[in-house]
Amino acid sequence: MKQLERSFYSKTSMYSFFVIVLLFFSMWIGTSQFKHIDMALIGYMISSFIFAIGLTVRMCSWLIRPATHQVIKRSFKNLKTKERKKRNIKSIATTAFENIVLQKFIFKRGLYRGIQHFLIAWGCIGSFAITFGLTFGWMHFDLIDPDTYQIIVMGIPTIIMPAHGIFAEMVYNGLNITALMVLVGVIMAITRRIRSKDVKVTQRVEFDLFPLYLLLAVTGTGLLLTVLYTFLEGWMHPYMSLVHQVTVVVLLIYFPFGKLFHLPIRPLATAVPLNYQETVKVDTRACLKCNTPYSSDDQIEDVKGILGAQAFDLKLADGSYLSDYCPACRRRIRVMKQLNMEAPLGNPYDPVQTRNGIHISGFGKKRQDEFYNKATKSDSKQEERV
Amino acid sequence: MNKIMYLEFERCIGCRACLAACRECGGHDAKERNYVEYVDFMESRQTYPMLCMQCKDPACARVCPANAIQITEEGVVLSAMEEKCIGCRNCTFGCPFGIPKFDFEENKMYKCDMCYDRSKHDIAPMCASVCPSEAIRFIDFDEMQELRRKRTQMNLIEGKKPAEHDKWQYVPEFFGVYSD
Ligand code: SF4
Ligand code: SF4
């Protein structure tokens, strides 16, 4: 592997190369040695290759980040551990179903947003699946007799269907259905972006709005094509199909570099139940100071590792790390440090000592100076004992 | 933005107006992002307000596997980008000061963003604009320096001297949260 890697400019270019080879190979099989290749789709094909390379490059640069690398490394380690098999399967299944298929957490952020995202997400995934299936020739239709079609997937004949049946209509109109889903979702999203003042605070035109308008252009022109050939006998059809092709090419090339890239990284959410919190809201590691459970051992180990890899020195004088304490204790540690009243030193029931000697009076009572002096003495005695 | 957040813990009277104000800020979804807690409940009822430091090199963003925490050009560290956050809570444990909060229902992290829509136009964040005792202030950098100098002078007048290797003896108990 090391030897092979050295034949390439970098690891990323090696992976890109293999992705392209794999795609070509799948095309070769799917189109039975390029016999069924659809030359009308050549523009889509080339941009799909660029899309694949872009995606690989982005994935690699994302995985190089110390934080991502650490989490992925632990995920793979856990996936290989036999004893965790049950937990692994359960985490993958629940994340895939609740988080990715149903997108429950987005519905919790609001029904409107849930519906909008669900429509865009599944519309896009469906459209991409159909587009790639056809452009790479993974799937095509064969006429076996005048009114029967057969779907050929990867050169293997599968479902047979009557040419005008309901199922067949659904297959032919697949792209129209998914495009309609995206169209509705995108219009909902644009409306929200225009109306809600809250989202405007951090929204950026090129990041949050451009992809929406791009999707609108792709689905709009795509659906217009259908309208043109069903109702207007193909009027302006060749021009429109060119415009549509241009929008799709832009989308495919943009995809790996913009907001839409959150789609391929979403499966990382599996790492949460897999590595860290098996059951939601159940923590297993206790805070070093107050003993409240706040995280899990593996997670704190990872956090320390990631911070260490990036030269963050968050080690305290007593050898513990700030991440060993629960967030509430960490806030208190910060304040106590500022006020020079660190809790681990001395008796917590003794009076508070401050740097400048100005004391906060307890419950409105002014205390004699002697009271504080006594405490200082008992402090130093304690230190001697230690 | 040339203003800074300036906290003086010992000025806090525990009225929690800052929490209420934070809930009102646009985009905060009626959930507060700052904290008011007791310093040492056994000794006194002294409370302190706590906000995000808006670190220059934020540990929270560094430990995020999804790269979801973005920093604006003014230096404000924003809440997780909703589409990227995978809900792992690494940021909560990586932050040295225990600031990021986590919403299990909506599966996303949210944290103090200095009321970005206000502070980017040099308007005081909600908490600073309501604090009655000036424990939280949104002031000019120069004003902060002036306050610090005054504090030091007072210490000298009172006969306190800085200990060796310990500037806190000399310039005690306050600090600024600032971005430039
Ligand atoms: S909870 Fe979200 S923002 Fe925080 S580290 Fe995890 S992915 Fe990043
Ligand atoms: S959340 Fe914590 S680490 Fe992140 S910027 Fe604020 S204080 Fe710094």
Primary descriptors:
heterodimer, A: 386 residues, mainly alpha, Fumarate Reductase Cytochrome B subunit, 2 domains, 3-stranded antiparallel beta sheet, 17 helices, B: 180 residues, alpha+beta, Alpha-Beta Plaits, two-stranded antiparallel ribbon, globular, disordered C terminus, binds iron/sulfur cluster
Description:
- The complex is a heterodimer of chains A (386) and B (180).
- Chain A is built from 17 helices and five strands.
- With 386 residues, chain A is mainly alpha-helical.
- Chain A folds into two domains: 261 residues, Fumarate Reductase Cytochrome B subunit, CATH 1.20.950; 69 residues, no CATH class.
- In chain A, the strands form two sheets. In chain A, strands 1-2-3 form a three-stranded antiparallel β-sheet, with no helix packed on it. In chain A, strands 4-5 form a two-stranded antiparallel sheet.
- Chain B has a single domain, classed as Alpha-Beta Plaits (2-Layer Sandwich), CATH 3.30.70.
- Helices cover 24% and strands 19% of the residues of chain B.
- Chain B is built from six helices and nine strands; from the N terminus they run E-H-E-E-H-E-E-H-E-E-H-H-E-H-E.
- In chain B, strand 4 and strand 5 form a beta hairpin.
- The chains are: A mainly alpha (386), B alpha+beta (180).
- The interface between A and B is large, with 71 and 57 residues.
- One iron/sulfur cluster binds next to helix 3 of chain B.
- One iron/sulfur cluster binds next to helix 2 of chain B.
- Chain B: Keywords: 4Fe-4S, Electron transport, Iron, Iron-sulfur, Metal-binding, Repeat, Transport.
- Chain B: InterPro entries: 4Fe4S_Fe-S-bd (IPR017896), 4Fe4S_Fe_S_CS (IPR017900), ET_IronSulfur_Cluster-Binding (IPR050954).
- Chain B: GO terms for molecular function: 4 iron, 4 sulfur cluster binding; metal ion binding.
- Chain B: It holds the Pfam family Fer4_11.
